Amino acid sequence: MMWSELDTWIVITGALTAMACAVPGVFLLLNKQSMLGDAISHAVLPGLAIGFLVSGTRDTFPMLLGAALAGVFTGVVSGMIERRGRVEAGASLGVVFCSLFALGLILIRLAADHVDLDPGCVLYGSLELAVIDSASVPRIAWQSGAILVLNLILAGFFFKELQLAAFDPRFAKASGIPAGWLQQGLTVITALTTVVAFESVGSILVIAMLIVPGATAMLLSRSVAGVLLWSLAVALCSAVIGHLSAISIGPVFLSLLTGHGNLGSLSSAGMMAVCAGLIFFTIFALAHLAQRLFSRVKEHSVTPQA
Amino acid sequence: MTSLPLEIRSLNVAYHRKMVLWDADLKIRSGRTTAIVGPNGAGKSTLLKAALGLIPSASGEILFYGEPLKKVRSRVAYVPQRESVDWDFPVSARDVVAMGLYKKIGWCLPVRSRHRRMADEALADVGLAEFAGRQISQLSGGQQQRVFLARALAQKAELHLMDEPFASVDAATEQAILALLKRLKDQGGTVVCVHHDLDTVAEYFDDVILLNMRVVAQGPASEVLTPENLRKTYGARLTLLDEAVVDLSRPGAPREP
Amino acid sequence: MDSFWRVLLLQDHNTRVVLAGACLFGAAAGLAGTFLLLRKRSLLGDTLGHATLPGITFAFLMAESFGFSPRSFPWLALGATISGVTGMGAVLMIRKLSRLKDDAALAIVLSVFFGAGIAMLSAIQQLPGGQAAGLERLIYGNPASMTASDAWFVLAASLIVAVVCGCLLKEFTLLCFDEAYAITAGWPVRSLDALLMGLVVLVTIVGLQTVGILLVVALLVIPPAAARFWSDELRTVSLFAAAVGGISAVVGVLSSALLPGLPTGALIVLSAALFFGISFLLGKKRGLLMRYFVEREAARRLQREHVLRAIFECAEGADPVVSIDALLAKRPWKKSQLASEVGLLADEGLLTTDPGGSSVQLNGRGDIEARRLVRNHRLWEIYLLTHADVAPSRVDRDADLIEHVLDPRLVQELEDILDDKARERLVPSNPEKVQP
């Protein structure tokens, strides 16, 4: 295993992106909107394509704008279908993001002559290539850092409002907190984070990092602040361990299983998602064991009562 | 002695870590109507659900007609709370009632016109004959409750377990349910209802089970509904005024005109 | 132009195979998706689709060790099935054993499984010979790569879905509508659920070639959601969904044949989306336009009732000729609004206006209609007063006749109260006159 400066940047970028995602992810989770992350990461595709088509460049700004609009569009339209058409929430979300994703695939193909955008790249990202940059700090690294800082500031600023809006949106509304606008804001932030992250790690890692750290943290803590902190820790760990295993034990393990000799290093983004999943399932199993043990002890202490 | 319709011995139920039922013991007598009464969160609905195996119980024995539920399922009908289902579902009142016949119709066989007729009869019995074809979201709350009752009726079971059938229904539905309870009883059936209204319990039911995590008392309504038992069930929440209400609602007690 | 007709007339054997396969898949997905939708698990299809990727890539890598061709569809489908089922099991386990909600379980499994798939895909891409291209078609879908044997596979799978859904229509209905009741009635709910999910897995596997991993959920969700706008009856909904699925697939395949270069899977999904849009707007039962008309009709009826009641009440015990000004004072309505309503009522033949248009008078028919409305309104008011506890859920002023909603005995009771009240009043301007 060879460790180079690139590996350091991959880990740093991955960790920053993962933590940037974990922050809005916790609130999505509390709002029971986990699949919105998935939906947005699919739905931004036409936004990106249109951004490219209009501006003709791969500049960040039109891309961000197009994606943010697509994200808001997803939230608003699926909400409308749910309310006006009385279609179940999950299904209306599914209808919207599938249609948008299909539209995006077609637009990209249509725009193929003008811009170089590969849907595969949007999905899986390529952390390994993105960090190759002439600057001393790769653009992608400071972008992820910036979005992390932005998300942390916003979460800190609106912490109690977001908490209340997630717990009891009606009460929040009645007491003058614009739960609806907070919701839209969360959608926009999720879309922005998705776009910044997709270039480096691809939309799949975005979905994983939005939800898996938060879900793991939910098993570990019962306060929202605690969940937020734990989720940052889990995101950091999955990024570090993910890249390490992608270049070391991952390929070895896979070679042994499949009988292919000398496989090269695996996709870091993919392995980061896998590691987040492994951390989740480990803690899930431990928590479940602990709970069982606890309830057995309790049962013993209760039953003798007549 | 023939076995009781339902007998529960030391049933314990816990949600996650919280105990909901503690060593509940109860016997339901055949051919009578029984109300399960208790404060909010006392585990009334839980008791029914655990008895029917809808939620796991930590320990305890549950016997229907002296056997585990599996062997006598067709003799037991369940009427869930109205809120438990999605009323936007694309079925008509008749379709819902016909669900009570599905077991009789058997696997894979379609619902035939003869079954639809049976469903219509059950609907007529609860006074909804003219609503048979309506999509269920277009019925009022009380009518939806009656559709559920008609489904249990169509099942032709002997023991009916009903979860809050009287919750927020109108007078017409209340009368229809009462008439139905009486009919079921006259046909030799047994009815168990979770009930929330102390004022009417003595009037509507033969037997009462007072429940607050444990069974406080059970037996004929007139014997069970004593101020002392009620205090044990409802604790300090039962004020003197409520006791007066209880006295009045006991059969034979003087009632206001 | 030539190619257009070749496609449309199905002159190519290959086009026919592809078209038949895609159409059957669309129909099967619509059918199975209907129950998935009613079970409120639409997005499970999404998770399932993504969760097949690690199985496919792993099978691809394993193929050599077992002496299969890495591109053999049945072998890859086996891998997809195993990992799809594993993913579904993981969702159920998380939901059952932790405090996490459904949506979280779906998102976790989707992203982690897909991440694992991507990690393995990156290994495949490094293999010599650029074999990964064979997998692209399963990710984005490419029905054109379908061979005759694949089409037979699709046919068999669709038949299984159709037969099982047809046979178990009532069992699945019960499962989706009221699971608790189904358990107490002795139905093996778990097995039924497993069977239904098995059908969904089958559809997903079949769909890999047509629309691909990423969009297979689209055909499970969009056609049933569209169909629901047209009917309140489950059988019709499911058949309609199957039809929408099949037709979208055909439209998608044909249009991709005409517009070469565009991804077929995406075109199929967009055609389905088009159907959804049309249904959302025009659906016969729940479409927006339909609801708009119903609501407008209700508003119009209310307005008509207001005018008739106002005229009647002004005329009650006084001059039957009522001035427009008196009516204007009665309610906060605009003069133009009132005038147009009066015009409509005059057209209906319920009232006569004086030549100047400054006053109106109910004629015989109008009087009867107004009486009926006033009586109903007053009965409802009394009902609200006497049955305050349950009334709000039942009061339906829009219903033309109170008897349609309330028990006849109850209506009789209310009428007695109305009569009593009428007698109590001193001024003769009371409902006593209402009694014919």
| Whole-number tally of structural domains of chain C | 3
Supply the helix-strand structural class of chain C: mainly alpha
The total count of strands of chain A amounts to 0
Order of helices and strands of chain A: HHHHHHHHHHHHH
Rg of chain C, Cα atoms, Å: 32 Å
Shape of chain C: elongated
Number of domains of chain A: 1
Number of helices of chain C: 19
Report on the biggest sheet of chain C: 3 strands, antiparallel
If strands are numbered along the chain, what order do they take across the biggest sheet of chain C?
A: 1-3-2
Strand content of chain C: under 5%
- The CATH architecture of the largest domain in chain C can be named as Orthogonal Bundle
The CATH superfamily of chain A is known as ABC transporter involved in vitamin B12 uptake, BtuC
Q: What is the third-level CATH name, the topology of chain A?
A: ABC transporter involved in vitamin B12 uptake, BtuC
Sheet-strand content of chain A, in percent, reads under 5%
Instruction: Please give the alpha-carbon distance between the first and last residues of chain A.
Output: 65 Å
Oligomer: heterotrimer
Which class do the helix and strand fractions of chain A yield?
mainly alpha
Question: How is this structure best described in words?
Answer:
The complex is a heterotrimer of chains A (306), B (257) and C (436). Chain A has a single domain, classed as ABC transporter involved in vitamin B12 uptake, BtuC (Orthogonal Bundle). By secondary structure, chain A is mainly α. By secondary structure, chain B is an alpha/beta fold. In chain B, 35% of the residues lie in helices and 23% in strands. Chain B contains ten helices and nine strands. In chain B, strand 6, helix 6 and strand 7 form a beta-alpha-beta unit. Chain B is globular, with a radius of gyration of 19 Å. Chain C is an all-alpha fold. Chain C folds into three domains: 285 residues, ABC transporter involved in vitamin B12 uptake, BtuC, CATH 1.10.3470; 73 residues, Winged helix-like DNA-binding domain superfamily/Winged helix DNA-binding domain (Arc Repressor Mutant, subunit A); 62 residues, Diphtheria Toxin Repressor, domain 2, CATH 1.10.60. Chain C has a three-stranded antiparallel beta sheet with strand order 1-3-2. In chain C, helix 2 packs antiparallel against helix 12 and helix 3 packs parallel to helix 5. The C terminus of chain C is likely disordered. The interface between A and C is large, with 69 and 67 residues.
